Structures are given as C-alpha cells and as structure tokens.
Amino acid sequence: xxxxxxFGERLTSIDQDKGNPGSSEIAPSMEGVSAAQRFEDxxxxxxxxxxxxxxxxxxxxxxxxxxxxxxxVRYRGSQAPMVVFCPDFPGxxxxxxxxxxxxxxxxxxxxxxxxxxxxxEGTFSFSGAEYDLSRIVEDxxxxxxxxREEIAIIGEGYGSYFALNLANSHNYLHNLVSISxxxxxxxYISDSDLKNLLNSxxxxxRGNPEHWYGEHLELLSFNNPxxxxxxxxxxxSVRLGDGNQSIDAPESSPLDIKTMxxxxxxxxxxxxxxxxxxxxxxxxxxxxxxxxxxxxxxLKIIDGADHVYRGKRVEMIKAVAxxxxxxxxxxx
Length: 332
Hints:
28% of the residues lie in helices and 28% in strands. It is α/β, with parallel strands linked by helices. It has a single domain, classed as Alpha/Beta hydrolase fold, catalytic domain (Rossmann fold). The strands form 3 sheets. Strands 3-4-5-6-7-9-8-10-11-15-16 form an 11-stranded mixed β-sheet, sandwiched between helices. Strands 13-12-14 form a 3-stranded antiparallel β-sheet. Helix 1 (96-104) packs parallel to helix 9 (313-329). The radius of gyration is 20 Å and the shape is globular. 39% of the residues are buried.
C-alpha cells in the first residue's frame, strides 16, 4: 500500500488496522482516530499519519541529542497557513480546544511537546525548550508544504516567553499570539512566589523547585526579552545589561541598542490576558503590548478570567481564532 506525503513523494505505509508490526507505536495523540499509517521519510525522521474524516494528522518526530522530540501536526494541505503552539510549562495541553477551533477554520496546526513533557522523550529544561521549538519550526518548514509567510506562533505562559526568543532568532516569524504570557522573566521571578508555585506544580516538577529556580536565573544571563541588547546584525546580539540598568551608548556606536521585544520583526501581534490571573500578572502582557513597535497589534484583557480562563474559554478562543482568521483570510 502506498500514499502521498505533504510533498507528493511516494511513501510506503503500514496499515495499523491490519495489525502490522509497529502499530502500537502510534502516539497517544492519535487516540480516537479510526485508521493510522506509519511513514518513513527520506531523512530518517518518522511521521505517523492518521486519516480521520479525510483530514491528515501526523506526529512529527525529530531526534535531538538522541532523544525523540514530538509534535502533533494537523495538516490542512499546501495552501493552508500553519500555526505552532508553544504550551505553558510544564507541558500544558489545556489549549487543545483552541487548536481544534483554529483547525476547523482551515488552518494547519502543530502542537509541540517539549523534551521531557507529554509524548516527547528526554528531560525538560528551559533552554532546551527554546531549542525544541526551533527544531520543530525548522522541520515543519522542511517537511510540510504551506505558504512560507503564513505561519504564526501561539505562546501561553512560559510558552510566550519561549516564543519571543524563537521569533528573535528566526526573522521569518512575523506573527505572534501571546496568551497569559511572560515577557519579563526577571520581574516574574521577583513578583511571584516562584518556588512555592513550582513545588505545587505537576508531578514532573514537584520536589525540584530549587533546580527549576536555578534554571530561571540561568536564563536571565542571556535572553530576557525586556533586557537591552546591542544588535550587531539581525541574528547577532550582545547583551548589555538587565532591565534595571540604563545603557548610554556613544553616538559612534555601531550597535543598534534595543530590548529584544523592540527588535522583533513582528508584523502582527495579539496579546490576550485574564484580568484575574494570579499566576502571571496581567502587567506582563501590558509590557509586551506597550513595548512592541509592531504596526498591527491588539490587546485583549478578558474580564474576570484566571490563568487558564475557567468559565471564559469561549471568549478567549473566539478572540484568538478570529484574529488568526482575519490575519490569514481577511484579505482574500
């Protein structure tokens, strides 16, 4: 039996329904799908495809330091835009309902599981999560056909922090949605009871607050989005100091001195936050919105919503899905 991959190449498939070897390796994200096939592409990376109501669904697997990194991809075809989800720490999947709504509107989606989270192998680290997102975005662009400028990144909580750094290192990422996002890690650490928050989190991090706290401090040494950097080129920057320091550069300085947020080449930005969020202060979103020079930006504060939008999810989902629909299809 043979089928077509996203590039139209002929691939050999294994029909799970026939009980062929390896069918048990289909990732849990395939649960509820009636038929599945396993593919091997020319790069040796594995793709699992599922057919459900004539829609393609894949699990993209990429090896990073001998560990398998996975992303659940729902593919609408070569003409559909692509949206990449950067979940909150630690590997939160609460926005699967948002993903389904976006997919229903004709947009392909990719939901990333950082290493050590969800279906991915290995051990989670904050610096590793940023690298994981970079690898997934690069692999999506390499292995799936979609309009190259029509890609957006959605970050929630810590995922927004990761997404800002991702956009800073990939100048083709122009569209960002931040949901309850962290934009200034230094302020977040000082304003939050971070150790208590980490200690009360999921089983994967409970009991290791000192480790995670140390990783937060390590991140501050090089890539906090509100810190100021001297940009030698779009891809090369020098950290000048933390957000509390004033940097006075001589007029002859060759460096373009900006915060990371000011440097981002964003064309469209949506910032969403709940007014009753006690995990991430809404002020974090205000900093992102007010600092960004993005020409098309929108701020949506949802009254009474907490960090995960209990009782307010319909309003949040509509705001994000409407924004992306207008972004990708409004002018057509």
